[in-house]
Amino acid sequence: MREVPAPFDGLAYDGHLVWDRFTRVFHWGLVACVSTALVSGFLLDASWIRLHLVSGSLAIALVTARTVWGFTGPTYARFSQFLPSYRQAISHLRAGAAHARHIGHNPLAALMVFVLLTLIVGLGLTGVASLGSGLKSGPMAASLPASQGHIWSKIHELAAFALLSFIALHIGGVVLESRRSRENLARSMINGRKEMRAGDLTAPPRPAQRALAALFISGLVIIATGAINRMSQSPLPLPPVGSMALVYSDECAACHMAYHPSLRPAASWQLMMDKLDSHFGEDATLPKETGDEITVWLVKHSAETVDSKPATLWTGLQETLPVALPNTDIWQRLHGSLADGTFTRRTIHSRSNCFACHRDAESGWFSPFQISVPKEPKQ
Fold it and tell me: Is residue 45 domain-shared with residue 99, that is, in the same domain?
């Protein structure tokens, strides 16, 4: 951190511009984006995934823009000005109230900036990996198997908890430093100005390279917009299941939804087809030739054969008697946030009516991008 004591004429005065407009807009824009991403990720259900995706993507775009500005911006926005050494950080921590006042970032605040920016980038990368593996959407959809979806989601969640912890430390540090230096640091990030005092550490002025930064940031906006659109698109298509699907649908959809074969493991389908004479309280027996053909088709396209998150969830389903999917622990855990009354609405009618809320239920994907819980129509 190349800073020198500022000259002092015996008077303290307000109005020294420290934080340029871009830095201030970036700071509060990032606060808004990260807050929205954390709330939508931790507190809202899966139907809010688009908001989570957009806010997270915008946060990454802001961090990338800030990185560009860190090399092209004015004096106190540049990384070269406030990148601290380990010795400077320890010295600042030990000095306490006696430390010299930094007009820009002090060593501990500078370290916090780099930690927060790194964590946000890490959250973006693990989020894209989770989206690509679990939901088969985005730039990593083709390169990561669905079986890794849970792992990447857990890493993404842990990174979010780490970010929350460092945000709390950051806020605490701002409050403590504001009291020690007798100034409102949060307000200075709004109006950009600080009071100049005797012995303050300042840096030699450096002009901003605005044209270069504008070029990079404009390109970034275009790339970010394209990335958001791509990540929110439909998932990779499942392998075609052939003409036999029509026979299966004709025989089963007369009574209930024709569940995609990837929603049960092979053994479960075999058990289901072997006990059609007592199919959940009804006799659903089929001609032997038709039943055998459907059984072979269901086993051929069962959960073990498909790389999707729903298939991965139900691969381990074990039964001695056929169990309806809404009665499984997995289904109940996934729908635990919905009130029981939701499923008695006329627009839904039954827990087995997946089509009511999942527009892509027939495809077997059950993507959160396609969730819409219908409301009860007015009388």
Answer: yes
Residues 217 and 289 in one domain: no
Strands (E), 183-331: 193-196, 201-202
Least Cα distance to 358 among 378, 328, 338 occurs for 338
Domain boundary among 231, 260, 294: 231
CA–CA dist 6, 92 (Å, integer): 18
DSSP summary character for residue 7: P
CB crowding 323-332: b at 16 or more within 10 Å, else e:
bebeebeebe
Domain membership of residue 237 (yes or no) is: no
* Nearest of 139, 150, 157, 300 to residue 235 by alpha carbon: 139
Q: Are 103 and 194 in contact (CB under 8 A)?
A: yes
Tell me, yes or no, whether 76 and 27 share the same domain.
Answer: yes
- 53 in a domain, yes or no? yes
> Diameter of the chain by CA atoms?
101
Residue range of the domain that includes 113: 4-231
The model's pLDDT over 276-314, given as tens digits with 9 standing for 90+, comes to 999 988 899 999 999 999 999 999 999 999 888 899 988
Lowest mean pLDDT among 183-192, 202-211, 300-309: 202-211
